[in-house]
Structures are given as C-alpha cells and as structure tokens.
Specification:
The protein has 13 helices and 23 strands. By secondary structure, the protein is an alpha/beta fold. It folds into three domains: 80 residues, Archaeosine Trna-guanine Transglycosylase, Chain: A, domain 4 (Roll); 123 residues, Rossmann fold; 229 residues. The strands form six sheets. Strands 19-20-18-17-21-22-23 form a seven-stranded parallel beta sheet, sandwiched between helices. Strands 1-2-5-8 form a four-stranded antiparallel beta sheet, with no helix packed on it. The longest helix has 20 residues. It is globular.
C-alpha cells in the first residue's frame, strides 16, 4: 500500500511514498481513495469528506479541525487544517499500573562506579561553573587529550554561557544541570573548573552535591591558582591515571537509563521511528531499566495518552501539574501553546502540534508513567519517567544526560548532526534520509514504511542500544560532535 491509515477511526491516511494525482491509493482491504492532487511522502490525504469545522482524525485522535470542506483524496495540510488546542489542561490523569510483562535481562559491558551507578563510557569531563572559564576548560581538554589517548575514552569540556548574573529558578536550573553532569557515571573523572567570583561557584556546587568521590572529582578555582593551566593539567593527569584502571564488566540491561528524544520530525516519525523506539523502551522497562521521556511542549494535545497510564496517585497528580505549568510558562511570555511545528516539520508533513505530539509520545511505548521529574532533577525510580524540558534538541538532550541517561535514542525525519554529552543514536524515520545522510544516521526505521517486520526491527535496535552501551561509537561520537545547552528562563543581571 502507498498510504497508511494508522487507526480504524482515522479520516486521513499517511503517504508512505509520494502519491501522484489520479493514483488509486489503497488503505485497507477493499478500500481505496483516488488522490485529487500530488501527496508528498509523509503527508496526509483525506479518506472521507470532512466538513469545515469537523475534527481531522489521525492515530485515532483529533489533530485539529478542518478550515474548509475537504473532499476525499485531497491533500490535508496547513492550507485546510488548523489546530484545535486551547491554553489549559483539559484531561485528568488516571492510575493504571499495568506494567509490561517482565523479560529476562539482557546484558551489556559497562563501568560499575564506586557509588553503584553505571556508565557506558569512561571519559574525563571538565565542567565549568561559569562561562568566563570556557576558554580555559577547552584549552585544558586539548592539552590533556594526548596524555589520555588510548587510556580513557576521551577528554571533553562542557562550555556554556551561564553560572553568573542569574536569579531565582533560572540560577537553580543551571546549578542542577551542572551537578547532574558532575555526578554522571559516563565520566571516570571530572574536573570542576571555577573562576572564583561567580554566583554558582565551586563552594555552592559542593554544597548542592552533598558528597562526591574524591578520587574521581577535582576542583580548581582559576582566580586562586597562580597558573590555572599548569595546575589544571596536573589535576587532569591524576584523574586520567585513576580512570585508566577502570574496566568494563558484564552488567544487566536493567541498569540502563535511556533518554528518548525526537527532532526534525516528519510525517513518518509517528509511523516508523517513534513507535519503534517505544517498543524498545517497553523492552528495557520490562527488563528493569528506565526510559526517560522529555519534551513537555510536544505532549500538548496528546497529554491524555500519558495521563491515562500513571503508575500511582503521585504520578497522576504530578503529570497534569507539570503539563499545566509548562502551558502557563508559554502564557507568561505572551505565547500560544500550539505554535510549535517548525518549517522542517511542516515540510515533512506535520501540520499541527496535536499531530506532532501524538507522534512524539509514541516514543514512550505503553509502560505506566512511574515518576515525574522537574528540570534538573535526576532519576529516582525505574520504569518510564517523564522529565520536564522544552522541545529544543540541545536543551532537552542535555537535561536527559544530567538526569542520568547514559545514552539517548534520537529519532529524526529531517536529519541532524549534533550529539549530546552522552552517546546519541540517530534513528531515521525514512529510508531516503538514512541513505542521504549515512554519516549522521545510526539506524534506519524507514523499512517499516515498506512492510518491514516490527519484531526484527525491535530486536535490531535493542541490540544497537546494547552495543552502544558496550562501547560501540555513534556517528556523532566518531565525528567529534558533542553539544550542551542549558535552559534560560529568567532575568540576566
């Protein structure tokens, strides 16, 4: 079939490949519609008459309302479909603790840290407390790399523009993210690099950390040091010497925390890559692991899907509150909640935020929501957790890493080269992208649009996750693409 009706209730279908004007598109046994115009891949065509003001249904849910009368076979997109979203939270959460049936745990080869956490890389990280020392951090990373080569998995600095001239929650966000990075088990050693006069200096972060492994964590205040480069290099050499003795060991997949993210989505994101990632997330949860779903604005219009499967009353209270607070964040800044699909999203076939969101939440699979985390918090419970982040790719993936994710599954229909602070597996929604940008893409889910076997793809992507956790490099790691961004929400002094 050239088109797919995802749910029996749907009154639109998705073009799995371009549909020519006049082509008879079969969407079910004995059911077809003739395309009135060319339908690009990933875009929608109407299966039945849709009157102006009537709901357009995809995934079994409304994705907006028709702006005009739409005839069967017509292209359905921004010219004739508008959002139906309102500003408030309209759904209530429910408790449904029916977890996936337990599965025997698979294993990977990771690093067991002294605090019992598990890393999938053995890197040395330099975490600046403030943007003023970014240059020093990067110079130290370059100087230490030759000494580290072949002994650890690399030396990385995490420059950012914050750490001072911040107030309130904005300052707290930065501190939480920095602490999450300092504690991260993918780092076999961490140098915390401060200036000395900043708001979020070393003494503040030490208090927030509450404790740290003195063998794998060093601190350097540049204003107090006579020669910060020389002292920093000495500290890094000591960290490298200690981390070089760490070795991989067999560890159960239940120790994995996997971040879930999509970016540069297209009309096939909710048809191929996102539901595939959801299946892998369910397998990991069934093995005792953790899947971490972020991007709260990309739940707007689909929040009810998650609200109906909270593991307990605490999650049922926290999840609507989190979504409501994020909508209020839009309103405080004078923005509407539904202005989200990017130009690239729209070019790929996504019309409204409801449509984008219904595809987005499929990355969370079917497991109950076990916990709800605010931005900068770290994972406390296993299972499917929801993390407060904006949709922005760099900000969201940084927060996933700081929350404890050792690696990230990142689906994309348009492609992106970036990598998060932790290994970032790019999963293409369509075969054309995977072929065109093979240097960016780690796995292609495009075959699912041509009748590929779901179980085979699920097993293959799960094995890719385990291989990556065991040391196989992602495309972005091979290219040296590692990026970090912190959410800015407040006054700059």
């Amino acid at each position: 079939m050239s088109v797919l009706r995802i749910h029996p209730r749907d009154n639109v279908a998705v073009a799995l490949s371009p549909v020519a004007a006049g082509e008879r598109a079969v969407y079910a046994v004995g059911q077809a519609v003739t395309a009135l115009e060319e339908i690009p891949q990933g875009h929608k065509l109407a299966l039945a008459p849709i009157a102006a003001g009537e709901a357009v249904i995809k995934y079994g849910y409304p994705i907006g309302r028709a702006k005009t009368d739409i005839a069967p076979g017509a292209w359905v997109h921004t010219h004739n479909l508008g959002t139906g979203l309102s500003q408030g939270v309209t759904a209530a959460a429910e408790v449904d603790a029916s977890a996936p049936a337990p599965l025997p745990p698979r294993t990977f080869r990771g690093y067991r840290r002294p605090d019992a956490s598990v890393g999938v890389r053995n890197e040395i990280w330099i975490v600046p407390t403030v943007g003023c020392v970014n240059g020093v951090a990067q110079a130290l990373a370059r100087a230490a790399e030759p000494y580290a080569r072949g002994r650890v998995d690399g030396v990385y600095a995490w420059p950012h523009p914050y750490g001072c001239s911040q107030m309130g929650d904005d300052q707290a966000y930065t501190r939480r993210i920095l602490c999450g990075l300092i504690r991260h088990p993918n780092a076999g050693g961490v140098l915390v690099l401060g200036l000395g006069c900043e708001n979020s200096g070393i003494s503040v972060l030490r208090d927030l950390l509450g404790g740290w492994d003195a063998e794998r964590t060093a601190f350097l205040e540049c204003q107090a040091a006579q020669d910060e480069q020389r002292e920093g290099e000495a500290l890094l050499r000591a960290l490298i010497d200690r981390a070089a003795g760490d070795a991989r060991e067999e560890i159960g997949a239940g120790e994995l925390i996997v971040g879930l993210k999509c970016g540069g989505s297209d009309g096939l994101s909710g048809v191929t890559a996102n539901p595939l990632v959801g299946r892998v997330a369910d397998r990991l949860v069934a093995m005792g692991g953790t899947a971490l779903l972020a991007e709260i604005p990309e739940m707007f219009g689909a929040e009810g899907v998650l609200f109906r499967r909270c593991a307990d009353e605490a999650a049922a209270r926290a999840l609507p509150e989190l979504v409501g607070d994020f909508k209020d964040y839009f309103v405080r800044h004078g923005q509407v909640v539904y202005e989200n699909p990017s130009p690239g999203n729209k070019a790929g076939g996504i019309t409204t935020l409801e449509e984008k969101s219904l595809g987005c939440v499929q990355k969370g699979g079917s497991a109950p929501v076990s916990d709800v985390l605010r931005y900068g918090e770290t994972v406390k419970k296993r299972g499917l957790c929801v993390l407060q982040t904006p949709g922005n790719d760099l900000v969201s993936t940084t927060a996933l890493a700081a929350a404890g994710a050792q690696l990230i599954l990142f689906t994309t229909g348009r492609g992106t080269p970036f990598g998060a602070p932790v290994p970032t597996l790019k999963i293409a929604t369509n075969t054309a992208l995977a072929g065109h940008k093979a240097n960016w893409i780690d796995y292609s889910a495009g075959g699912l649009a041509q009748g590929g076997d779901w179980e085979q793809h699920t097993q293959a992507l799960l094995q890719t996750v385990l291989d990556t956790a065991s040391g196989a490099l992602t495309r972005s790691e091979r290219a040296g693409y590692r990026d970090l961004a912190i959410w800015k929400d407040g006054v700059t002094l």
